[in-house]
Amino acid sequence: MSSLTDDQHIYSEFADVERQTLIRQIVDDHPGLSHLSRSAFFFLWFSDIRQLRNLAAPCSDEDRDGRYWALTGTNMCDLPDILPVSPSERSRSESPSLFEDAMTPESEYCQAASLQRDKYQCVVTKMGRPTLQSAYIFPSISDNSWRLLQVFFDREQLIALNPEQDNCITEQVSNYLTLSVLVQRFWHFATCAFRPVSINNENTEMEIAFHWLPITNHKRAEKVPIFQRLDLNQVQEWVEGPHDGIRLRHVETEQVIRSGFLFKVTTFDPESQPLPSFALLQLKWRLSRIAAMQGASGEGDRV
Q: Which domain of life is it from (predicted)?
């Protein structure tokens, strides 16, 4: 188990000076965006920096109105295919079954290939059988979700979702990671998140950072100032888990897995058993944090 930790944390974007400047430009151009719902707030702060530059660039009145609508009129609370389930809403959702009812031959192959690639061990904890699941990074993506993603995330990074190919990302080995059932549930319920850190030139080794996420009692529709001050020291409160009742241990070292823990996924065959998609993991990293931090939905939730 590596003693090194990630040099970023779950709120790193809030300390980015360029991001602060771009969001200030957006608000100066449209003062009505000075307060946003928690959903829109985190979608904006965790958006791709290239897309944020586009949103802040000078534009026509029509485009300006479109930006305003994207941040105030879009229902970001009803996108179950892209947003992990908020920890505060666990009772409303079941984690994907360990054994899928409608498996295609292609998805069966992908799951088997990812299990073999990951040496039949959870890539985070190194736990082995029988408590393993080949977990997908993303399911199929609906048209509504695709349109929303294009507002906040760079199109080049979204190509991995393959919308032109019948939304068949679930039938790609690069869309799967081997996780213990417990880690998979934490990931599904936005209790933890994975940040892809690096990949080597041969596409045979990827480094990923594990991070715990906070559990909030807020509601998504709550309005917050766009420059609301966040206590970045608060990250230390859940460095070993979101509360005392949630912990993970590394099987080989028996050490508690802390936020920032770095682990590696490797492959000997990048063609037939490719590494997980860096782009998909990067997008999931952003969306997992949004799901955790925006809070629970409520009747009439609208951005």
A: Eukaryota
